[in-house]
Amino acid sequence: MTPRIRTLALACATVALAAPLLTAPAQATPEPPRTGFEETNGARWTTQPEEQKLLAAVDKASDRVSVSRIGTTKQDRPVQLVRIGERSTKNTVLLICSQHGDEPSGRDACLSTIRDLAYAKDKKTERFLNRTTLLVVPTANPDGRAADTRGNSDGVDINRDHIALKTAEARATAAVIRDRRPDVIYDLHEYGATPKYYDKDLFDLWPRNLNTDEAVHGEAQTLSKSYVRPAAEHAGHTTGTYGIWTDPVTGEPIKQTAGDGQERILRNVSGIKHAAGLLIESRVDPLTDAEKNDEALNNRRRVTSQQAALGGLFDYTDERRARLERATDAARAEGYRDRGPVYLGGADNDPAEPSEIIQDPPCGYRLDAAQYADIKDELALHGVTVKRQKSGAYVPLRQSARALVPLLLDERAPYHLAKGRPDMSC
User: Fold this and answer.
1) Fold held by 3-330
2) How much of the chain exceeds pLDDT 70, in percent?
3) What secondary structure, in 3-state letters, does the chain show?
4) pLDDT at 17 over 80
5) What is the residue extent of each domain of the chain?
6) pTM for the predicted model, two decimal places
7) Which pLDDT does position 347 carry in this prediction?
């Protein structure tokens, strides 16, 4: 990263725990709002009323920010989308914060980032926002955050619902991805460490699903290895690859625990939907005796590590926007060529078995009327092109969502929504 870009990262991504990081523009309120986390110096997490108050204040004070409701949870809480620096530009970045309600550091990092970007006056930030649309779902699981639970109010893990789309929360995310076609989808989480083998300050992981376009996969790895990790390390945090246990002496991998190529996880759906996805995981457990004795100190480290990584994301977006746009545009167009296999299993670190590869995919899948009625909303949320017929519907593979169609409709796919009838007439 160049010094110029690193300055932008630090300007945009450092949490203002003791005082606001960025000065307010003349038309804004004299003092930018602060999160509950900042007000208590990390002693507790920002409450949902405090979140709503901050978002309302930012929405009112800054013409570069807009807040809207994109969904409603079972317990009637809003799922909201914050749009920052919205421009008629291809380059769009989506942050999904705290899908798991008991992993709050990403949410507080997102809230303070929204505020900092809204009130920034420096030319570097203005230039960045003039060329980038940043979308943020600050609390992707409001009911889970209220209850401090991993799942939503029905106990469903939202991050295992990005294929079936049964939850209101996952449906809201799918609609944003369909409508806004983000180039990057950045998913903020936390994890519990295992001493010696699995204990970095911050882990990340790109889409491993084999249906991810090669260039998009490469951009996601570049985001991780050349930007996010260096930015976190520059701020004093250790980093590694999520899900990989390593031998403390040799550094060799000894165990794999992540979801690998499982398509229903947002990290992998991101790649299948042609975005450079990245999962980010901050360490929950205290690192030092001081953190063990001071929960606020531990909490601050969790949030600042997330903020440092966000700085790397912004650097990446600013430096590689042209390469990223070329990769995502080409990936979205590739499905219309209707060539190559579709993978029902495997990952970039785990070759697919022959039974997991559709070497000669069908032209499409036919659904009868009952099948189509049952899943038409989900197909629409995924952005899948469907041709209505008297007998039901026909879903062609020749479309941008080519690789996704068999995952939804082939009976061999692990998480299929319906058993479509393959059309091999082509």
Assistant:
1) Aminopeptidase (3.40.630)
2) 92
3) CCHHHHHHHHHHHCCCCCCCCCCCCCCCCCCCCCCHHHHCCCCCCCCHHHHHHHHHHHHHHCCCEEEEEEEECCCCCEEEEEEECCCCCCCEEEEEECCCCCCCHHHHHHHHHHHHHHHCCCHHHHHHHHHCEEEEECCCCHHHHHHCCCCCCCCCCHHHCCCCCCCHHHHHHHHHHHHHCCCEEEEEEEECCECCCECCCEEEECCCCCCCCHHHHHHHHHHHHHHHHHHHHHCCCCEEECCEEECCCCCCEEEECCCCCCCCCHHHHHHHCCCEEEEEEEECCCCCHHHHHCHHHHHHHHHHHHHHHHHHHHHHHHHCHHHHHHHHHHHHHHHHHCCCCEECCCECCECCCHHHEECCCCCEEEEEHHHHHHHHHHHHHHCCCCEEECCEEEEECCCCCCCHHHHHHCCCCCCCCCCCEEECCC
4) no
5) 3-330, 338-423
6) 0.93
7) 95
